[in-house]
Records
---
Amino acid sequence: MHLMRSLRARLLAVLMATVLLAWAIWLACQYVQTTHLQSDQNDRMVRGVAEHILLSLPDDIDTIRPQGHLQLPPDATLLPETKFDKIVFQVWVLDRRESVVASTGAPATPLRADFAVGHADAQVDGRPWRTYAVTDATGQVQVQAGVTHAHLHAELWRWIGASLKTALLVLAALAAALWLVVGWSLRPVTRLRGAIAERHALDLAPLPVAELPDEIRPLVDSFNQLLGRLDKAVHAERAFLAEAAHELRTPLAALLTQTQVALHSPDPQAALERLRDGIERLGRLAQQLLDSARIDADRRREEHGPLELAEIVALVVREFEATAARRHQTIGVTADAALGVAGNIDDLGILVRNLVDNAVRYAGSGGRIEVACRGDSGSGTVVLEVRDDGPGVPAEERERVFERFFRGSNGNGERGSGIGLSLVARIARSHGATVRTGTGIGGRGFAVEVIFPGLVE
């Protein structure tokens, strides 16, 4: 399994399998072609031997009686066998059916028992033969020549064996060359792996791509883009932690001061009220930080289901009624029935809560807040709008209010954390919604509109 995960081994296996398959197909074609050619060549060779022997015989050969064979001198040396030595012949006198001349190794029985002329396959002495017979013009003498099938097959397998040895040598050389070439090509990748292993955990600088093969470079380019995004995310998280630490340190110091004032004040009521406001602000900041962390942790999760947005709005507004009453504010809610959206109930609760909290804090004492939830039948969308009649936000700052830790100028001295509306924008994006800002009630104040895609029935 580890071997097949190797690019070099995988490439070598695929190329070798392709070459072997192509070679096997070529060998099969060559076998068929060679078998046909060899059969034709052997037939021509056997026929040529028979015809040449017939033409070399004297015209009175039919009068000769078979005698013993002549022998070579004792000191003579036979030459090594050739393929012609495997061909045997017989000279027959047809009217006597008697063999007057025969080659060494020729069988005693006729190669063609029927003494017919031409090529034929015959069984002689229990062995298959390929034979050819030719008769002279007078019809008195017939020359029969032949070669065993075993010899023909041996010749064919000698050729196949030589081809196999050559092919194996070529394949071994090709495999070695491929192994070395792939290793040489992947050497920059090996160096890159070593460079990555030596890096510090937070070193997110782009990886070098100058020497990489063209096939690997797109992967490393994509990885470098990921490193760039990760570097931005790490810097953003560091900035977030620094800002969060600062935001928590400031109200804690204020709480400590107000607590000391309350302890030493003859009338601690005002100090306790300020202490309560500080605790509320600290609790709100802690909740927003927790919400932000939860959204970051769950941003890859898809748990969106059908929800009634109006019900969520009603529950959230009810939570803020006591706070609004203490500030002498009024909150009005108008919601159409059966406004279904696809979303995560926790995320949508955070979105509505931050919109209402932002309006309550910045509307000022005696302010008016309106929360509306309506459907747009023309576009099939659901619109959530929260607006107030407070001092509002300057037009040039309206788009920046959704940036994390951005605090715009306001006319009531309320200090925010710069987190609430950034959460609204992030949750809206994750739900495919769009956010718009505008002027609040009666041409004053601030309004935020979140437009959700409606459920498709």
Note: DSSP finds nine helices and twelve strands in the chain.
---
Amino acid sequence: MLLRKRFLLLALPAALLACAVQAQDKFIVLASTTSTEQSGLFKHLLPQFTQASGTAVRVVAVGTGQALDMARRGDADALFVHDQPAEEKFVAEGFGLERRAVMYNDFVLIGPKADPAGTRGSNIAAALKRLADTGAGFVSRGDKSGTHSAELRQWKLAGVDLAAAKPAGYKECGCGMGPALNIAASTGAYVLADRATWLNFKNRADLGILVEGDKQLFNQYGVIVVNPARHPHVKKDLAQGFSDWVVSPAGQTAIASYTIGGEQLFFPNAGN
């Protein structure tokens, strides 16, 4: 009996240590875009997922292009990004499992409220053509993010060939959405932003929304689990749990309930 008690006393710390290590391991690395973090969505959303699942989420917020590169290297378990053509290519190349639609919002053109370039309206191509023609200051993220990719598509639709010659006022910052907005605010420049980050942006100076409502400004977000066949160390089951939750009724309700000043920032559309 005494020997058994001694064995139990010795075994208990080891069991507790094993449980602690297991608990610490129950997390995923989520590579995501800066807009989901800088808008404040993750602070609202992820604690609800962790409470429901017991899985912690460690977010690396970079541009979508960088997030996809991280996942290609096996440095993330899942992706939550917003460049659908690039996401579909990622899955087609075998780096990711199923891509699932999660939510959407839109891009808006931000600029000085006086709008010296005359861009105001609902036609983003016409607005960018005005910026090119007038040489007005424009801040491009220039970081291969989802927003940057969307911006490049809009310039192309506007008939502006950036590869041939960038407009006089066009400047690339190689930075996230928040810093790009800060630069625009301090210099009186124009910038394409996702609406959610703009609504959460405090340093607006004399900036306002000038162009919105164009169907070309639709901004879709998707979730992808990294393929463990490419990277066996990926926490596929935990990552799949996150993917399943954000498209579930509970996750979709959590997304819809995130507001700033009574305005909804993201609109769930899982299954679309």
Note: Residues 106-217 form a domain with the D-Maltodextrin-Binding Protein; domain 2 fold (CATH 3.40.190.10).
---
Amino acid sequence: MNASASSQEKLLRPSMDTTRDIAAAAEIGKILGERLLLKGIPAVSVFLKREQRYHGKIRAVIDNMRDAGVKLL
């Protein structure tokens, strides 16, 4: 099973002022978390590449997935 969310989705774009800021990343994380739970996926593992750090947009997506109820392994 898989789930996805993107700022490029036609249904999401009108509700976002811009698709490139932290607020947009937070909204994507929330929607992705909700979609994962609807598909019956209660937990996910997140692996960051060596050059990626847990801040900014990455942090917004991950934190909002967690706030939606998805457990991170």
Note: The mean pLDDT is 92.
